[in-house]
């Protein structure tokens, strides 16, 4: 709240310094317009800083709902603190505003690089996230009181009119910044360079306002100090932009353990691949000079490891192929082509439909030598039809087709999607999603779902199982040991990850509860037969005994009475 000006007390020779009319190099009307223009620019930059923190925190830590709540609540609180602290600077508003903008440009511009560095080299970024949210919020909060003082010194008007003008420019600037971040800065420059560029714009706008428009308010010492501070900030930001590419390369190497062979931003997510260049690397037998076994990361989360993926995909696909025909198969997700590879090993399969959101992943699965070797060029098989669309939207569109023509049902539906704990995936593990999938099943069809880690996040796993049951399907939950410590891309990187489970250890006998498992749910209209099909091909990492042990082992950890997750009430986050 901005206090209205008070009359000068008797005996004072003139008005207080913060209300003295400014001596400007331009007419007052033009000066006021310039101040409002700087308000517009600063508001746009401030919102970019907020969105950049939310986006980067979601990428590094996961759970976008929690990260957005933390960043925005801390920043709004800090803005209130900054507004109170700015009251002490009103007597020298021009100098104070110049110092605030120089600090904001440096802190906001460098925040993305600093957060990424904390994540890459120290293994966590939560503390840095809160610290930057506080610092940026305090500096943004200090802007409005100082700008209010400056605009009143250009030309006095009633407080209500001044506030209306100031906030109008502020809100319009926020709109432009909010749209510029996803549609211009992020796709054109990326998070690191985009934040640094925003800081540079912020520093220039604040410097021009103070060092030119209000230069007569400054002492020679203050003028040189602000000029030097702004020059230093711009130099640091420019250096950061020059070093952004090698910094990102070094940080990726620290995160992924080796130099990434492929690193692309597809428009949906960041896709990084390491290893997999040797003749045997794709099968987990990395040769000298091959860079090791192939590993595929999506938004920093390990999705495929050539050393263990065959166990995961065999456990996902082959139990669902048992218990009935498997002529028509639907794969939701699975753009890497590895689940399709296992499906095509059955000679009776006539058609496979793959619904994958990211065309960049599909392109790599077809063209990358390491990944296409690993999936045995499955996406190029004439029986495979690929659809580039969101799985939820595709199921909904197919289910709503009119004209009395019901789409041909599928014998098997394989849901090979990211873990449900990731906020963007929650709708793909909802009651509505499974209801749509169930409508696409044949009368004796089976649905299999990758349901997350059943031991480390048991409540999440059993919520998936309860949600599948809520649409009228009978379920058989099961698990398989061997999941890498980093397969689930949860909060930060563990400093002391749990050891991997030996592939020979039965699923029913985890080592002191420290085993890492993949969790699955098999479902059908009637309780599905669990096991392997009579025409199952020879499997390298899965046997009937291990499957049965996984079914018995996971049943002992059942959490009864969990509610289903819905679009309106998702229950996987937190």
TrEMBL record:
Gene3D superfamilies found in the cross-reference section: Vaccinia Virus protein VP39 (3.40.50.150)
EC number(s) reported in the record: 2.5.1.16
Reaction equations catalysed: S-adenosyl 3-(methylsulfanyl)propylamine + putrescine = S-methyl-5'-thioadenosine + spermidine + H(+)
Topology with respect to the bilayer: Multi-pass membrane protein
GO terms assigned for molecular function: spermidine synthase activity; thermospermine synthase activity
Active-site residues, record numbering mapped to chain: 416
BP terms from Gene Ontology: spermidine biosynthetic process
Subcellular location: Cell membrane
Protein family membership: Belongs to the spermidine/spermine synthase family.
Quaternary structure note: Homodimer or homotetramer.
Protein name, entry field: Polyamine aminopropyltransferase
Organism annotation: Streptomyces auratus AGR0001
Phylogenetic lineage: Bacteria, Bacillati, Actinomycetota, Actinomycetes, Kitasatosporales
Chain's gene name: speE
